[in-house]
Amino acid sequence: MSSGKLFDLSGKIAVVTGGSTGLGRGMAMGLAESGASIVLVDHRMRKDTAEELRARGHEVMTLTADLSENDAPQEIVNKVLERFKRVDILVNNAGIIRRSAATSFTEKDWDDVLALNAKSVFLLCQAAARDMMKRKKGKIINIASVLSFQGGINVVSYAASKGAVGQMTKALANEWAPEGINVNAIAPGYMVTDNTAKLREDKLRYRQITERIPAGRWGEPKDLEGAVVFLASDASDYVHGHVLLVDGGWTAR
Q: Is the pTM of this model over 0.85?
């Protein structure tokens, strides 16, 4: 198979949660440019990304859902199956972060973050895998974090949730690799997104973090395009349970 064919996603159906903004938007764009039809799942209706994708000639479906509700993941998959008949690629990107010292961290903030960042990820994996098993083929890509490996500061629930995503990815890969399903994760480093806006406003912390990144800059959503296309394509057929760091070298230092 030629290298071009290895990364060709033509005819594939890719579901991207949190797909209209930030990292999700970058990955949705990359998947679409490689040929996939895109399902954008967002907490509220956002039109800009869908309109841009359509303007480029890509097929797009938009869905709104509160992923913290237990029924939402299966309902999303059901709607995708109703239109496209299958789910080929699932990118679990939607997530939130709450910042506070651990001694004052509220139970609600803990529950909110774990519900969206970990529980909904599992439920979406489960719902998509049930369909993928019918064809013995599928790609599930969870979005972890450098905080799957490190503790961070004042983000105890986020670190816990992303640690869970990393271990969940490995556990599901063990179960589903024999079913032809690749379960892997991408662990972004410090990225320019809404989630990091407050952190970047702290000039001292921004400078300290930037100086520690070997690449000398924070990541942009476009920096995840190659990683997600690789893990969504035939090029990664023998990659199972891997957490791929895209962090500018942060964890290597």
A: yes
